[in-house]
């Protein structure tokens, strides 16, 4: 232990004796560590981190493709959705939702509310429940019932000051009263991070009869053990059977497929972020390679010192340990500066993230980033 303390003291003296070398080395390493950690932080939060739902790998987004034109979409008709939700087709649960924009009033400052009308089993499909209050019951989907609404955690905090007595309070959506039945957890922001509320999806008879109006997005939780190939094969059979039963015109015939929700959420952002991370890593490796030359030059300038120490009896192990101590000291300094730089970069990266970047609000520095 005493020799280690001596090595550390000597290493500190050596770094202070060569401030130019220390500054260049620490800054180069810190920039490489900081930028790489910041980019990896974005990559991890957006691409690598699992979705905040139980067994999220089983969640699938349904897609539709027209047989005659090949045009793709993500919306189903009401009749297609009802047939799919009762037919199984490889799913344990199926949930539909349709977006809406309402004026939220009954508060100090009215705001535009971006919400979703959701089908029965929506929360169960995602494996989540409100953190305050209750979810939707079967009675909430009956015509003539008192309208109820679930609000997002963000809306609860920003507009209602996170009041615990919010459950049971009335709010106005386009002037129509609705009772707040619950508040969703902070990490539940589906389908969009700006989603403010969720209401029961009560289909009208006109919507049920219309075979061309596509407005319902569908997410399903596959049954255990069902692969993507098996699911898509069952969806193909469902599509042909549905069109035969309902005598759908040829120009309106479609085929269905399922895409893992995590892949659908990431989209092309995953490829872009991997390319960015690879480019930053390559630049960092070039910088570290140049540091090797700096260390070699440093070794040459200290050649006389090494000769004197070896003459006095210092062996290769003793000299190597001293150099290792100096390298560790510089690395620790660079790591501290680099992580400080990362923390400074994360907030601008989060605030300047493109609007369509999924899970951008989750970008942060945590133990995973530090360890990586």
Describe the structure.
The chain has a six-stranded mixed β-barrel. It is elongated and about 95 Å long. It has two domains: about 1-50 and about 270-370, no CATH class; about 70-250, no CATH class. It has helices at about 1-15, 20-50, 80-85, 120-125, 155-160, 205-210, 230-245, 260-265, 270-300, 305-310, 315-350, 365-370, and strands at about 60-65, 70-75, 75, 90-105, 110-120, 130-135, 150, 170-175, 175-185, 195-200, 215-220, 255-260. It is an alpha+beta fold and about 375 residues long. A hairpin with a 5-residue loop joins β1 and β2 (about 70-75). The protein has twelve helices and twelve strands. α2 crosses α11 (about 315-350).
* Unreliable sequence segments: none
Count of DSSP-assigned helices: 12
- Estimate the strand proportion: 15-25%
Question: How would a textbook summarize the main sheet?
Answer: 6 strands, mixed, barrel
Q: How much helical structure, as a percent, in the residues?
A: 40-55%
